[in-house]
């Protein structure tokens, strides 16, 4: 009995030592570590090259916000809240309101990020999110106008990553769109006599929602491998990243490529677009159904 216990303990110690050696090798030689996995047609987390992580969308969890959503994409977790204010429209756009998306990548979500002002990565992703939200027309800015040249809604769509494991763009876009779909605003009108906007305390109305964009991001490694939904370990090793955004009917909204890399023997953009549409059809078609 004692011999059996000793054998089990020895086996456990050997397993722990192997895991420690693998972790050390991963940190010291990350590219070689990834290459060895890909040579065996598998990724470090066990996924196939074209396999996407599981996703969940929950809405309405922030009671103080006008709309909210929590999205989990694998281990990447993003929470988004929408806060509405009233402002005067811009002079050159008297019939438009404002949509202001922003992503925060705080130090608490990953050792990759440091305390201090917003990172360049967060700003780049925020700009890309703004482009997609405006171009897709998920919420038309004209629908946010209360009275031309007098009063309009400003929607601050603030997302925070609370756990980062790569592909923040896809997760944040899902969280922002779900939060906007969940948003309810007080019924408002502009009183000419008082020269002010009057909001109902009892009646709240949903936003006028247009197309619902969904993003599918890919990473190209070593000019030979196209990896769907890259993790935080894979991202720094990629030559290129491609994000394909489709709407809730499967129509193409935009394609964004960062980096100049290519995939050997493949039409990179066409391959990514086809893979994105296939994933949308098979697993993401109803991602906003509960929001």
Automatic annotation (TrEMBL):
SUPFAM superfamilies: Ribonuclease PH domain 2-like, Ribosomal protein S5 domain 2-like. Signal peptide: none annotated. Residues 51-186, 212-278 form the Exoribonuclease phosphorolytic domain. GO terms for cellular component: cytoplasmic exosome (RNase complex); nuclear exosome (RNase complex); nucleolus; ribosome. The keyword Metal-binding does not apply. CDD domains: RNase_PH_RRP43 (cd11369). GO terms for biological process: exonucleolytic trimming to generate mature 3'-end of 5.8S rRNA from tricistronic rRNA transcript (SSU-rRNA, 5.8S rRNA, LSU-rRNA); nuclear mRNA surveillance; nuclear polyadenylation-dependent rRNA catabolic process; rRNA catabolic process; TRAMP-dependent tRNA surveillance pathway; U1 snRNA 3'-end processing; U4 snRNA 3'-end processing; U5 snRNA 3'-end processing. Its main location: cytoplasm. Keywords: Cytoplasm, Exosome, Nucleus, Ribonucleoprotein, Ribosomal protein, RNA-binding, rRNA processing. InterPro entries: ExoRNase_PH_dom1, ExoRNase_PH_dom2, ExoRNase_PH_dom2_sf, Exosome_comp_Rrp42_subfam, PNPase/RNase_PH_dom_sf, Ribosomal_Su5_D2-typ_SF, Rrp43. It is found in: Cytoplasm; Nucleus, Nucleolus. One of its GO terms (molecular function) is mRNA 3'-UTR AU-rich region binding. Belongs to the RNase PH family. This is Ribosomal RNA-processing protein 43. The lineage of its organism: Eukaryota, Fungi, Dikarya, Basidiomycota, Agaricomycotina.
């Amino acid at each position: 009995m004692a011999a059996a216990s000793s054998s089990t303990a020895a086996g456990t110690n050997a397993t722990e030592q192997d895991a420690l050696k693998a972790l050390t090798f991963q940190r010291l030689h990350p590219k070689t570590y990834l290459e060895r996995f890909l040579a065996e047609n598998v990724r470090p987390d066990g996924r196939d090259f074209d396999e996407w992580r599981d996703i969940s969308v929950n809405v309405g969890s922030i009671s103080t916000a006008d709309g909210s959503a929590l999205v989990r994409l694998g281990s990447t977790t993003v929470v988004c809240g929408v806060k509405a204010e009233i402002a005067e429209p811009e002079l050159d756009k008297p019939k438009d309101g404002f949509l202001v998306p922003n992503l925060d990548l705080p130090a608490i979500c990953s050792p990759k990020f440091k305390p201090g002002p917003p990172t360049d990565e967060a700003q780049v992703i925020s700009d890309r999110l703004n482009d997609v939200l405006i171009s897709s027309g998920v919420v038309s800015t004209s629908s946010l106008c209360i009275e031309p040249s007098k009063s309009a809604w400003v929607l601050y769509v603030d997302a925070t990553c609370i756990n980062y494991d790569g592909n923040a763009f896809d997760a944040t876009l899902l969280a922002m769109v779900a939060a906007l779909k969940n948003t309810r605003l007080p019924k408002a009108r502009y009183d000419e006599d008082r020269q002010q906007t009057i909001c109902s305390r009892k009646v709240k109305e949903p936003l006028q929602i247009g197309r619902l964009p969904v993003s599918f991001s890919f990473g190209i490694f070593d000019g030979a491998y196209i990896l769907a939904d890259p993790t935080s370990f894979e991202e720094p090793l990629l030559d290129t990243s491609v994000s394909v955004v489709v709407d809730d009917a499967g129509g193409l909204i935009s394609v964004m490529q960062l980096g100049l890399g290519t995939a050997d023997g493949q039409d990179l953009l066409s391959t990514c677009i086809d893979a994105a549409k296939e994933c949308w059809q098979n697993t993401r078609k109803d991602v906003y159904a509960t929001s």
